[in-house]
């Protein structure tokens, strides 16, 4: 770096040398100033790295899906708490790879991957009064399933009666794009793991016994879950 003394000493040089020196000074100052701006920009970027990276990651995972039957829109990730973004985590379990564990107390669903790892999905879970636990299994699977409200729901919510004969699959159907039906001892529990397009429901108790994943997460889980897969519902 050129110090003030060096700049003052330039007056003792001949006039022919001054333009070159001034040019050199300007170039060095421009470089230093430009470097400071660049470093400052990097610093500012670093300050926003956690949130920005989380949103970039979420945007990739939850972008639009051109499904063959109904195009699935992107999730508004600004409405999704970053802690519920799908990721691989450490999860010690003696259960076989592929087993699904629903943790309603923390609003997560885990798929055991083995070697102490699991895929973790953010979820919505049953609301107070509808929580339950136990061992179940996937009795059947469906894409764009028809939704038929159980008689208990119709009694509680008479407005659901219009769908007593079944609501066809589609973007507005409560079961969404993919559904895993939970069974115990050969009988349907009337509960499912289903797809939701509502990011604001994730991390909340909102259902009458079912567990919901964002559609893009449900697509991932559905493809890797065969019928007869064990599903464990932990106590809340």
TrEMBL record:
SUPFAM superfamilies: L,D-transpeptidase catalytic domain-like. CDD domains: YkuD_like (cd16913). Its EC number is 2.3.2.-. InterPro entries: LD-transpeptidase, LD_TPept_cat_dom, Transpep_catalytic_dom. It is an enzyme of class 2 (transferase). GO terms for molecular function: acyltransferase activity. Keywords: Acyltransferase, Cell shape, Cell wall biogenesis/degradation, Glycosyltransferase, Hydrolase, Peptidoglycan synthesis, Transferase. The keyword Zinc-finger does not apply. Pathway: Cell wall biogenesis; peptidoglycan biosynthesis. Residues 99-232 form the L,D-TPase catalytic domain. Pfam families: YkuD. Belongs to the YkuD family. This is L,D-transpeptidase. It comes from Methylocapsa polymorpha. The lineage of its organism: Bacteria, Pseudomonadati, Pseudomonadota, Alphaproteobacteria, Hyphomicrobiales.
């Amino acid at each position: 770096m050129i110090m003030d003394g060096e700049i003052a000493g330039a007056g003792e040089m001949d006039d022919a040398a001054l333009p070159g020196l001034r040019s050199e000074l300007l170039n060095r100052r421009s470089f230093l100033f430009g470097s400071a701006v660049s470093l400052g920009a990097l610093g500012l970027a670093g300050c926003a790295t956690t949130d920005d990276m989380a949103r970039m990651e979420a945007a990739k995972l939850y972008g639009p899906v051109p499904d063959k039957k109904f195009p699935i829109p992107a999730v508004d990730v600004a409405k999704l708490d970053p802690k519920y973004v799908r990721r691989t985590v450490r999860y010690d379990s003696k259960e076989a790879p592929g087993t699904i564990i629903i943790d309603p107390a923390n609003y997560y669903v885990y798929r055991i991957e083995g070697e102490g790892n699991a895929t973790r999905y953010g979820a919505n879970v049953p609301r107070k009064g509808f929580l339950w636990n136990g061992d179940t299994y996937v009795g059947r699977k469906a894409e764009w399933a028809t939704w038929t409200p159980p008689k208990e729901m119709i009694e509680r919510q008479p407005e659901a009666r219009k769908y007593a004969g079944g609501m066809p699959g589609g973007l507005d159907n409560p079961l969404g794009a993919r559904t895993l039906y939970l069974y115990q001892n050969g009988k349907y529990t009337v509960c499912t793991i289903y797809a939701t397009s509502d990011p604001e429901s994730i991390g909340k108790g909102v259902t009458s016994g079912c567990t919901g994943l964002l559609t893009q997460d449900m697509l991932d889980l559905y493809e890797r879950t065969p019928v007869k897969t064990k599903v464990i519902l932990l106590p809340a």
